[in-house]
Amino acid sequence: MSSLSSSFVQIKHEDLRFYENCGGGSFGSVYRAHWISQDKEVAVKKLLKIETEAEILSSLSHKNIIQFYGAVLESPNYGIVTEYAGGGSLYEYLSSEQSEEMDMEQIMTWAMEIAKGMHYLHSEAPVKVIHRDLKSRNVVLTADKVLKICDFGASKFQSHTTHMTVVGTFPWMAPEVIQSLPVSETCDTYSYGVVLWEMLTREVPFKGFEGLQVAWLVVEKQERLTIPTSCPPSFADLMKKCWQAEPKERPVFKQVLGTLETMSKDSRLPEQCNSFLHNKDQWRCEIDATLERLRRLERDLSSKEKELEERELRLRLWEERLMERSNVTPALLTMGSAMSISLREKAVLFKDGPDTVGHLMEVQTGKSAKDKTLKRYSPWRRIVKKKGSKKVQAHENTNQNNIAHLSNENLEKSQSFSNLSTLILEKSQSCDKLSTQDQSTPAISNSSNNAASSVEKFPLCNSNTAPDTPQMVTVQDLDTPRRLVMVHATTGELLRCLGEFLCRRCHRLQDMSSMDPVLWLRVVDRYLLDNCYQNQSCINPATVVFLYMLCREAVSSELATLHELHAVLLTCFYTTCSYMGNEIAYPLKPFLVDTCGQTFWIRCMSITKLMSDKMLQMNTDPNFFSQVFADLKNESQKEEKKSRLLSGVYSTQ
């Protein structure tokens, strides 16, 4: 911290008088404040800690870059202090009625100002900087309508940047940024083209699409924003060059400035541009038609995925029927299912016989090598696939030996529970001698309130009923001969439920979509696969349920930025991976959102302390994990109820 404080002015927190919240960047909330000692109106961006943003800003000085005054280094009130731009963001201006008065001269002036600021960052600054998050929200207007680039939370010094993590906002992100490939300064050129499109059309890019959908369209389908046919050709050509898929084919900002200067000398351009701006009703239908086509494309993909999910469900039900016919007890956790059995039944499973775990393992490992499992089509796997990545080849014999070894370890763990159940049963039998009460399982009547209040009920789907028709299974004391709870759900369904839960929990993050957390998890999973830390995805129903259990305790509703949520979620994911696959040494790099590893470990310890009671409960109660599974699956129903309630409120108004 001392090295940082020596490079800029250190401002006391008491020297600032805070006013209203005037927005938020990707990595912190921004407040309007008064710098008391300097009698100056400033903007203060609150951070969890001071990282590279203050260091970057302290080295910059340009009329189109937000002016940096200093930083607050007092824990926990970290923040950076910059000039206050009273005109708000460019995004807000383009969404207002004032934008209807824009003309060619205004657009050309602002396009030049943004390009000059970016050219300074890439070529003229003391240390070359790649912004990585250029968008209309990160361009602000001063009182005299001069544009300035701000929010360097995602920026990196160019000499230190060879690979990208997924930062920024998808409609403005270049394809190589979405795929976490090596980048250059031309990734900012792509974003500049999107901002130029916003100024010309005064529309929101990819309006109505979620982040992951935009990523799939841009990378997989090579889709770009629609340029209306009546758009001036010079502007259309410039935007197309900025959006080239190959980074080397995009112009640098020195070339962009040269193109803009040439365009400003064209005597025909003002008339063409003003005619385009003032006849929006004539060409807006072209943008709407493209958006509708993309929605149909996305719906077709969703229907195919749904069809595969239904096939997967039918396959799972078919396997269960085979298990029932062969009289084999389904004692193992299967992909997509959570199952719980009573302590007494766990003890029985250790005996030799056709209904034991050992016999089931022999049946499983003795399957024909020609048997194939259904693999779901995943467009995201194709998006983030890197060139030269090597696929881990699984050795059948080795895997079978590993499965048998892990099974033996699990049996030894379960043996301890069987001993515990024996001790409890002995105590209960001694109590039976003192009581004349009948110990048989009570019948549950729909009209009996007392019985309903003393017996827990869990939904169960078996092969004899429809998948969507739940049966009720009673969970009573240890004398119940069988206690079985099974919940079915696909990994994709659980991930969507997790995203919806986080959106409801972090209600202050208005720009967040339910697919953002899913993307963060997929990026980490792809990194682990590509670098051979595992030979199959670590994202499965069990890990998603465990992650959901951690998030319910660790994710606070007071989180103010996506950066904070990203850090907490990946810390929970690291804890989940470490617990579920403790034989694997996971690297910290893909899980780190903050550059400081100490912050990561402090957060890990706090999560572990929060979950100590839950972990004990999960290890002693065989139905606890299944109940968490059911809770997660019900998150989507909560979202549907919320939508129906809101639609009902609006319809009555």
UniProtKB/TrEMBL annotation:
Biased composition (Polar residues): 395-406
SUPFAM superfamilies per UniProt: Cyclin-like, Protein kinase-like (PK-like)
MF-aspect GO terms: ATP binding; cyclin-dependent protein serine/threonine kinase activator activity; MAP kinase kinase kinase activity
Entry coiled-coil feature ranges: 280-321
Pfam families the UniProt entry points to: CDK5_activator (PF03261), PK_Tyr_Ser-Thr (PF07714)
Disordered: annotated span: 385-406
Domain Protein kinase, residue spans: 16-277
Protein name: Mitogen-activated protein kinase kinase kinase 20-like isoform X2
Organism per entry: Salvelinus namaycush (Lake trout)
Keyword Transferase part of the UniProt annotation: yes
Annotated family: Belongs to the cyclin-dependent kinase 5 activator family.
Gene Ontology CC annotations of this record: cytoplasm; protein kinase 5 complex
UniProt entry tagged with the keyword Coiled coil: yes
